[in-house]
Every structure is written in structure tokens, then in C-alpha cells.
Automatic annotation (TrEMBL):
Family, as annotated: Belongs to the nitroreductase family.
InterPro entries registered for this protein in UniProt: NfsB-like, Nitroreductase, Nitroreductase-like
Native species: Chitinophaga qingshengii
Cofactor: FMN
Annotated Nitroreductase domain residues: 8-184
Name by which UniProt lists this protein: NAD(P)H-dependent oxidoreductase
Alphabetically ordered keywords of this record: Flavoprotein, FMN, NADP, Oxidoreductase
């Protein structure tokens, strides 16, 4: 199938088959694709947590209004934003650029200045909104990559973020939960897989100017 067929095939799975698990190779491809996601400046001010532990997932299920996807999917992916965005994150990034591209830090001074200017202009609410947007970009990449690999997924916002932070110990790590996705394989009796996909007509959604 081409990418359009893959996206027609995917849907937000309501019922996963708990007996079907991703292979190590499949999980690696999904996480590698997510790592390659677009991000403003390339800064990636978030972390991607892959939750496998059954006991932890049971606790997270209780913090997600007992939605079955949390425990029945092969893996649960938690996107957590950096909660204390500051210049050190820019420094870490420019150090990575210098090492990866074998260039001098001095050559990155202008770029670093632009990024630090952006970071320093953001108040707490602004930083939370901006870093959350970056995490959602990564979520979109994960969903598309999963579809391309024939892996099912369900993006989810129905959960108590504060409880997730507590259960996963994120506050001490300078992180805060933004959005989650369950990934695995649809159950044969999940009725939603047979529902026709509903989207706005192209002429209503897309406008050429």
C-alpha cells in the first residue's frame, strides 16, 4: 500500500489484541521515526517514554478513566515536555550539532543566540504551550510511521496528566506529560475498524490562494 492507502487504513483503535506484541525491530523503527520528527529549530524539548511495565500501566489505566487501550496495547507511549525550558537546553543542542557536524561552537553563536532569545521571551505558560506543540509534532510522526509499518495506534488525551507525572516520577526529571499513544494491533472484534473514515471534503479543507 502507498502512504494514502496506509492512512486510510489507520484509525484510532478502541480495542487492542493484548496477545499481539510489537517485535523489537518494529518498536525500533517506530521510535527511530519519532526521533526523526520535525521540531522547531530541531531542539526537541520533550522526551518519549515507552511504558512496558504491566504494573505501572495498570496504575496509568486508573489515571486514564480505565480505558482498555492503556493496558491491552503492546506498548504505551508517553510524550512529556520539558517543564523548565532554559538556555541549558539550547547549549546541549548546539553541543550536539557541533559534535555531529564536526563544526566549531563559535560558528553556531548566531543560531544559539536566536534560540536563546526565543526561550527567554517565553513566560511559563508560553513555554508550556510551545514545548507541547513540539511534542504533538512528534506524535503525528509516530502515528504516520506506525501506519506505514502496519502497526495500529490510538492517540489519547483522556487522562489525568498530573497523576501520570506522579506515577512516572516526571517532576523530578523536569518533565510534564502532554499526550499519549497506545500502539499495537487491533482486536479482530473492534467494530471501529470497519467504520468509514469521516473527514472534511477536500474543497472545504484545502484552499489554494
Amino acid at each position: 500500500m502507498d502512504i494514502i492507502e496506509k492512512l486510510e487504513w489507520r484509525y484510532a483503535v478502541k480495542k487492542f489484541d493484548p496477545a499481539k506484541k510489537l517485535t523489537a525491530t518494529q518498536l525500533d523503527r517506530i521510535t527511530t521515526a519519532t526521533r526523526l520528527s520535525a521540531s522547531s529549530y530541531g531542539l526537541q524539548p520533550y522526551k518519549v517514554l515507552i511504558v512496558e511495565n504491566p504494573a505501572i500501566r495498570e496504575r496509568l489505566k486508573a489515571a486514564s478513566w480505565n480505558q482498555s487501550q492503556i493496558t491491552d496495547a503492546s506498548h504505551l507511549v508517553v510524550f512529556a515536555r520539558v517543564s523548565n525550558l532554559n538556555e541549558s537546553h539550547v547549549d546541549d543542542y548546539t553541543n550536539n550539532i557541533a559534535a555531529t557536524r564536526h563544526i566549531n561552537q563559535e560558528d553556531l553563536a548566531g543560531f544559539a543566540g536566536v534560540m536563546k532569545g526565543t526561550v527567554n521571551r517565553l513566560d511559563e505558560a508560553g513555554a508550556a504551550a510551545w514545548t507541547s506543540k513540539q511534542a504533538y509534532l512528534a506524535l503525528g510522526t509516530l502515528l504516520t510511521a506506525a501506519a506505514a509499518e502496519g502497526i495500529d495506534a490510538c492517540p489519547m488525551e483522556g487522562f489525568d496528566a498530573a497523576r501520570y507525572d506522579e506515577i512516572l516520577g516526571l517532576k523530578d526529571k523536569g518533565l510534564a506529560t502532554v499526550v499519549i499513544a497506545a500502539i499495537g494491533f487491533r482486536a479482530a472484534d473492534d467494530a471501529m475498524q470497519h467504520a468509514k473514515k469521516v473527514r472534511k471534503p477536500m474543497a472545504e479543507l484545502v484552499e489554494l490562494i
